[in-house]
Amino acid sequence: MLLVILAAAAGFFGQGLLSGTSVGQDQQLKIEYERFLHYLSPTSLMFRIRATDSEQRDLRIRINSDFVQAMTLEKVVPEPTRVEAGDKWLSYNFAVNIPGEVIIKFDLTPQQIGLVSAKVSVGSAQPLSFWQFVYP
Amino acid sequence: MVNPVLRAVVIYFFLLVVFRLSGKRSLSQLTSFDFVLLLIIAEATQQGLIGNDFSLTQALLLIMTLIGIDILISLLKQRFPRLERWVDGIPLVIVENGRPLKHLMDKERIDEKDVLTAARETQGLERMEQIRYAVLERSGGISIIPNERSS
User: Fold this and answer.
1) pTM of the shown model
2) ipTM exceeding 0.90?
């Protein structure tokens, strides 16, 4: 029992040091997320994008549709200018003022218990993959 | 979002301190208003513990942590008697040979009527002189030891 409590305090069951993490360590794109989630309990994905291309006024985030189905998208800050649906993906377009760091936040609620995998790409960059585990 | 273990620890120790400071008698004899108060406290505590996370995992972790702290405290109480005195208090003699010990009774917010009520209910005694000892127990109840002459 002590081990379970210690693991929970460390964040193995969500909300803690072991849970909070990020992918994409380079300067261009970083996605911050929680590794362990609770079913129907709000969470968020934070995109930190450093846009350098001065012609880039329109920023596109593309997410696999399996991920969007497993989560309810509550809110996106800032509001996307356009949302597009494609073959197994959804893309969110944002108007950005660059150069500089752009922060985009997706508020989500997990709707599915178990492992959820995400594949996200920003602009023309290589897609990043990560997983999240939703506890019941 | 706050870690459930942290929430449980904060709430546990907050309630422990508040109820310890409020004295032994605060909820030992429930009036109907005390009962309502207890319900409101439970409701407020629940909001603080669970927040907007209604998952099974959150509930199980909270229960496990609260029981875990309780076990830990009881183990520590066995090892450190001083902690036990602080957490549970000590039984307090408030009437000795029919003489009420005023300063102790005032400290615990008990008056002679409370002692006589306990004496009537538990021993069927009528007067203070018939009481040899009245003891305010850790639970907040008053136990009465009658004078041998009166029985």
Assistant:
1) 0.81
2) no
